Each structure stands twice: as structure tokens, then as C-alpha cells.
Amino acid sequence: MGKIVIISGPSGSGKTTVCKLLENDARVKKSVSVTTRPPRQNENNGESYHFVSTAEFEDMIRKGELAEYATYCGNYYGTPLNALKEALNKDVIYLLEIEVQGALQIIEKFPEAISVFLLPPDKKTLSHRLVKRNTNKEQDMAVRLKTADKELEYKDRYDHCVVNDDLEETINTIRKILKLV
User: Fold this and answer.
1) What count of Cα atoms within 13 Å lies in the side-chain half-sphere of residue 168?
2) How far apart are CA 170 and CA 178, in angstroms?
């Protein structure tokens, strides 16, 4: 029987990097979310995300094809339900890299899910990471920082909170939580 594992936290907390490193374990399979936001440089459809139009996403909502969905910074994001069900029928750790709104929906629908909230060491580091990423316009960064403040209020709803200050230590901590060591 598979396990659902949620990796969540504010934009710039390191979710994508952490998930990529956890995926190096053959027992871990990462969910590919659906989004209406445009692809960033080096993102491939079907690998990074399934990039769809707003109309297509809203059709998926109507058809009940999403385990969770939310809007974040003006775009839809969601987890395909069929892929999640398939993963639960296999002996894999199904990794959901999702934002807080979606994570709370999964926690409610799948209480057996293991939830991990990634915290930046501090707000200055979070801001620096977003600037370093260089994919966000200044206005978008302000929205992401404001959203991060709101998201931090939900950290106590997660099973585990991990400060992502030292990447190797963060990965080791999460691997212990998931009993991958």
C-alpha cells in the first residue's frame, strides 16, 4: 500500500529542490500537478507540471478529476485524482509538492497522509531565494512574500515542520520522517 506525503511551505522555502532530491530514492514517486500558470524556463509539460488553460482546468474541477485544487498568485494548481489513487495501490511514497490551500484539502480527505511544512530560516532568506530564482517580477514577489506570511499561520496543521537552512540536513530529516533510512 502506498503512502501520500505532502511537502508544502511558502514559495522560496525549497519545496522543488527537496522533492527532486527525495525522488532519487526508487521508492519515491512525485506527483505532477496541473496548473494554469505559464511554464518557466527549463520546465517541461508533463514533467514539471501539466500546463493547461483555465477552461481546461475548470473542466477538470467540474468532472471531479482533482484530489485538491487551489488558486495561488492568480493561477490554478491541482493534483490529479487518478494518479493519486494509482499510487496508493502501489508500494510507493507518493510525493505531493503543493501549496498550503491544497495541502489542507489533502490532509482533510486523506488523514493518513504524512505532511511536512518546509520553513525558511527567516524572512530575509526567503526574500533572497525568491530574488535569486530570478523568475518572478517585482510585483509578483511582493504577492509571494505577503502570501508566505499567511501560509506560515498554518504550519501547526502539519505533522512535521522542518527548517530548510542546510539542504543536506533537511533531506536527512525528511528521509527519517519517511523511514527511508
Assistant:
1) 0
2) 12
CA distances from residue 129 to 2, 61, 97, 101, 170 in whole angstroms, order as listed: 33, 33, 18, 22, 16
Per-residue pLDDT, averaged over 112-119, amounts to 95
Helix (H) / strand (E) element for 175: namely helix 167-177
For the segment 36-79, what is each residue's pLDDT rounded down to a tens digit? 999 988 889 998 899 999 999 999 999 999 999 998 878 999 99
Q: What is the DSSP string of 157-171?
A: GSSEEEE-SSHHHHH
The three-point CA angle 103-107-112 to 5° equals 135
Which of 83, 108, 94, 99 has its CA nearest to residue 143?
99
pLDDT at 50: 96
Q: Which helix (H) or strand (E) holds 36?
A: none
H helices of 23-137, in order, are: 54-62, 81-88, 100-109, 123-133
The predicted model scores a pTM of 0.86
